[in-house]
Design goal:
This protein is mainly β. The protein has one helix and seven strands; from the N terminus they run αβββββββ. It has two domains: about 1-30; about 40-95 and about 110-140, Immunoglobulin-like, CATH 2.60.40.790. The protein has one helix at about 15-30, and strands at about 55, 60-65, 75-80, 85-90, 110-115, 130, 135-140. The strands form two sheets. The protein has a four-stranded antiparallel sheet with strand order 1-2-7-6, with no helix packed on it. The protein has a three-stranded antiparallel sheet with strand order 3-4-5, with no helix packed on it.
Length: about 160
């Protein structure tokens, strides 16, 4: 993954979007990511189908949306591996895809894998996922920041 020398969140919104988009493009072109050693590698080059995804971060959580038209919830596997969210599954061929004569076949199918490294600690017990109208929504709450406190030093 490309890393900027300054935090992207300090940029104005338009530049933040541009920087994020450039980071994604460079990662896709060079098929690089800082997660490759542990299996968290963004779009998987060996996957036949790569679903589109959106990630939004708020102060308290991440919201991840994956477009999975034609996929059933039973065909989706969702797991957390260290700091990586891994979504995998299979988009089946349409029943008539093996027809005698195919005029157009633009829809991808087959296995898919998307993995996303998340930089902030998550509250693993509160992660939720829902699937409606072909869109998988994953809510990833961040861990609450520890409250600051003064620690008394005892005399020995």
């Amino acid at each position: 993954m490309v890393h900027f020398r300054f935090p992207i969140y300090q940029l104005p919104l338009a530049l933040k979007d541009f920087a994020s988009e450039m980071e994604t493009i460079v990662d896709q072109v060079f098929n690089k990511s800082d997660c490759q050693s542990d299996g968290c590698d963004g779009p998987n080059a060996s996957s036949a189908y790569t679903p589109d995804l959106d990630i939004f971060e708020s102060e308290g959580s991440y919201n991840v949306y994956l477009d999975l038209p034609g996929v059933t919830s039973e065909a989706i596997k969702l797991e957390m591996q260290d700091e990586c969210l891994v979504v995998s599954g299979t988009r089946e061929k349409r029943p008539d895809a093996e027809a005698k004569q195919v005029h157009r076949n633009e829809c991808s199918n087959g296995p898919f894998l998307r993995s996303i490294r998340l930089t902030k600690p998550l509250d693993m017990e509160k992660i939720e996922a829902s699937f409606e109208n072909g869109v998988l929504h994953i809510l990833l709450p961040k861990q609450a920041k520890p409250l600051s406190r003064t620690i008394e030093i005892k005399k020995v």
